[in-house]
Known about the structure:
The protein has 26 helices and 7 strands. It has about 700 residues and is α+β, with helices and mostly antiparallel strands.
Amino acid sequence: MPSVAEATQDKVDALNDKARALMVVNSNQALLLSQDAVRLAESIHYPKGMAAGLQTLGFCHIRHSEHEQASDCLDRAFVLFQSLDDVKGQADIWQYRGIISRCLCNYAASLEYLFQALGIREKLADAGKEGIPLNLYDVGITYRYLGNYSKALDYLQQSLAKARKENATLTESYVLNNIGLIYAESGDYAHALPYYQESLKLRRLNGDQWGEAGCLDNRGNAHYNLGDYAQALSCCEQSLAISEAIGDKKGQANALFHIGSIRYRLKNFEEAHRNWEKSQEVRKSIQDKKGQAEILLCFSELYGNKAYPKADTAKALALLEEGLRIGEAIKAKDTLSKIHRGFYQLLKGAERHQEALLHYEAHIALDKAVHSEAMSKKVLDLEVSHRIEQAQKETEAVRLRNTELARLNEEIQEQKERTELQRDVLRKTLTDLKATQSQLVQSEKMASLGELTAGIAHEIQNPLNFVNNFSEVSVELCKEIRQEQEAGRLAEAQALLDELVESLYKIQQHGRRAEAIVKGMLQHSRSSTGQKEPTDVNALANEYMRLAYHGLRAKDQSFNTALATEFDEQLHKVSVVPQELGRVLLNLFNNAFYAVQQKQKQGLEDYRPEVRLRTRRLDDAVEVRVRDNGTGIPDKVRDKIFQPFFTTKPSGQGTGLGLSLSYDIITKGHGGKLRVESREGEYTEFIIYLPAPVAEAPR
Length: 699
């Protein structure tokens, strides 16, 4: 008869299997089941069941656009999969991280995670390769979001072939839907509709309500662009009802957006505004920046429409400015092209021709890039007739653009001299600004030497105290030796000589310690030549941690914090520029101690400040982590911390160059990576990755 623990394990496995089976077709139920599985697995310390439960739970949070909760679950699951040596589980986590990054418009990170997952899957045995079609699908989707339709179709076609071979109808439905989207984004909505319809059948066959809502919304958008507003409204309203029922926020946002667009075309302006406003609220809640920019463009069109009773050109331009900032931040070329086109139309109507021309040129460049990608070979091979139609459209578009550009150039010719003068003034201003920035960067480098001073003073005092003390002892021993010699007690004199030798050895030992500290200080203050050399990263990091701590203690004797280290003792020396890496470490430790000091001043009950240093050998890199349990970094500024001159410290306490320089030293100077993880009010952790191929390790 199985024990209680074994019976509980079986129950956890059953819950996880059921949750896994339902996570696509009924994410709400799967979420509840996986929560139960995790709770039970924790109660009996069952890591395998806990990892599987957290994995499914993370996916369900992604479905609900709860990206922070999803990341937390996936991070915990990844650690467990590593401890279990479950590489398939690790691949799943990499893939889910890629999906989250895509949802947050971080497409570079999305591709990095997805290719990491794909690389693992391709090395697995046949039994572990069933996830490849879906992995290829996700890579294709990220490329589609980037506007690179050629690569998107390449990966989608690979996914479709493998899905059909394995009879993976759900994955097949995903791919068909997205091929339809590529047709739609290329402007060929008539060809998109059959793909949507085929995908919709497969989704309903599999009970995938999320996918059903998405297909309906896509069909509605296609009908809208074909001018069939009644059919479009019916599809989008069906999509909205399903999305609300299953809690799919992204689906709700899209359906509301399209319903608003349909209402706008029907000249029902207030209804359009209301639906767009609701969609914008949802998109902000799920951090869909690209979607936010698109809605701002719609609002701008509404306020720029003279038929709208509340038309306001100034407000329309302000909305476009806000959309432009978002579009540039996420590098969404298609959205930026539309925004610049919107600027052109508004400014042209306001007879601000010079400004209108600048935006029109930007629109042309971006629109051409989008069209070029859509016209790449992978897209053209879908259908020859489609290629001809698209080529004709592009030729006609270029002709119209050239005509419009020539007309605008004639209108602003008389303003040419004034424009050139303004450009010269701006160039001189930019040159002066760069010179000032260069001086500030050098000042920041030299300021780090000042940060070391107090710490070095504390460190060097210890060996100097030993030198002074043993020097006094040596003098006394010399006197005693002389007395013993004069008294003829040679044995006693010899014993005292031995003590003298030991005392002098200790003087020598601590003198060298002081010499090493001074040498380190000189190296830090010296301008770096950029010459890399084999360096003990453990020793270097430990040294700067203590120096930074004692430096802060010299300023504030009441400050104390726990210092925790976890060194990989097998870590071999790494080829780095020690002075530059030392500057980075000093900056990170200073920030960590400042964060815990500020949190300590809040007088929180039971708060114990701690700064933790950890090193670890990875496959082809060395990882250094600096973590504190201080104030954390607010979400709204986390993306800005590596920007030059940005600081969260009070005025006069920081230049905002420390992290910017650190980022350049690691990424440009060493070809590595520097990233940050943080939760406001709880912790901040900086992670340094230094390239260190295994081949560099000593044999």
